[in-house]
């Protein structure tokens, strides 16, 4: 059975807001992730609030700042935390925006919790620490299970993305078999095709920053969603999952992690473009395969060609980051590459241009030879030749 609404938690996540004049007299609860994470003993993140029985006018009169589009959401006048009026929803169209919302004062907290995605995200906490858990979220937390709240799970494709992301974040949790069945149904019925690229990227970017990010892509693959939300991506559970663990362990950036995921794809940059990933992520996805191909080259012309292709003269830090990323795939001598970058930066291009009397063709050839010489010298000094 699920926990009773009068169950209490070991500690409150309200953080002393019980006497807040802005919320005094309002029926307010913290819901979702902050409650879940506190119960798991994890650091507190952003808090989301639900207000039951209030109107938009009442919220505005207390100084709350309206920011909601489809339904009333307000920012607290001091803390700027989000307070949403309790709401229900009804499917009215395709995709995650195809809903109409009702936020009347008769909507109960239990009504609001019923529309959430997973039971572990559908637990609320009152200011006195009392937990409201009509859907058995506490039991699923204890048993380490990710389970959908209701059949409406198939109506919102974002829930599939969130399921995959939570499966990666909480990699010790299993996914209920019936939840996986609904996720596959969501794909089969075409709901997932209504996801806009920006929303896909938002969830993927969050999921990539956890240690076991590979599980997110595997869940998307197992449900048939991966090819629909990230077309062109060739996912290899191994070694990609292991490489992502390495990237997390070594503190690599989002751009590096995304590039590692895309490295088996025919056109990694096109995968990044489809989801409108940031320019840095697109660049890393484009460049990493070439680095992996040439990072273990043994001759100076190949070293220079790789550095020129990656614009190491103007962006040495990015190039060395790409080399560090390659260490999650194969053995790489990072110290040698640092020496090579330093070597080509030691060349005085101005002096060469002056010696060649400003003749472009001669300058280009002389610079090339000077850089090759510098690379060979650096390598010899480092004992690599």
From TrEMBL:
Its cofactor is Mg(2+). It holds the Pfam family PolyA_pol_RNAbd. Residues 28-147 form the Poly A polymerase head domain. InterPro entries: CCA_bact, NT_sf, PolA_pol_head_dom, PolyA_RNA-bd, tRNA_CCA-adding_enzyme. It comes from the Bacteria. One of its GO terms (molecular function) is CCA tRNA nucleotidyltransferase activity. CDD domains: NT_ClassII-CCAase. Residues 173-233 form the tRNA nucleotidyltransferase/poly(A) polymerase RNA and SrmB- binding domain. The keyword ATP-binding applies. GO terms for biological process: RNA repair; tRNA 3'-terminal CCA addition. This is tRNA CCA-pyrophosphorylase. Keywords: ATP-binding, Magnesium, Metal-binding, Nucleotide-binding, Nucleotidyltransferase, RNA repair, RNA-binding, Transferase, tRNA processing. Transmembrane segments: none annotated. Belongs to the tRNA nucleotidyltransferase/poly(A) polymerase family. It comes from Pollutimonas harenae.
